[in-house]
Amino acid sequence: MKNPVFSPADILLPKNNFEKWSVIACDQFTSRPDYWEECSRIAGDSPSALRLIYPEAFLGEKDRSARIDSINGTMREYLDNGIYNEYKNAFIYVERIQSDGRRRCGLVGKTDLEQYDYSEDSHSAIRATEKTVLERIPPRVEIRKGAPTELPHIMMLADDPNKTVIEPITALRENGELEKLYDFELMQGGGHLSGWLVPEKYHGQIVNAI
Description:
alpha+beta, four-stranded antiparallel beta sheet, 6 helices
């Protein structure tokens, strides 16, 4: 049987200080180094995902290998220092309230990359919604070579006219059936983010719906 396109994952979350931990995806604000410098000021000395990603605004710097070594070293340091709670085989339901007040709902899990193809004429189960910038791939590959943890920033969209995936989980949250894991303001006007653990008894329903 073919692996499911989307399934539960082993998820690490920091034990506290979500406001300083969470940053926007590394391929945003590529023309705004000042944005990332402000993120660094806000995070300070606290554990932060900022230390585990390579903002594309800085890909032109001379000593790229030094930053990559620092990223991988910090990943190991965070693991050794026990800053995480681990949720094995988990789905996390998320709601983000954007700065304009709109709500976006989603689900955190893992994808089967064997079913992904970013070529423009792809008919795979998972495909790109925009053109892939090939020159951005090598530095990401370099980081992955020695990385003990994964920080994907993939957002997947699904055609679901019968509302079989997200809406049933939203109903569970509204009925108080989900355990809240985090609830905080994102830095630099990013809005508000909340996340709930989805009980394992609903996992099969989600996978089958997708």
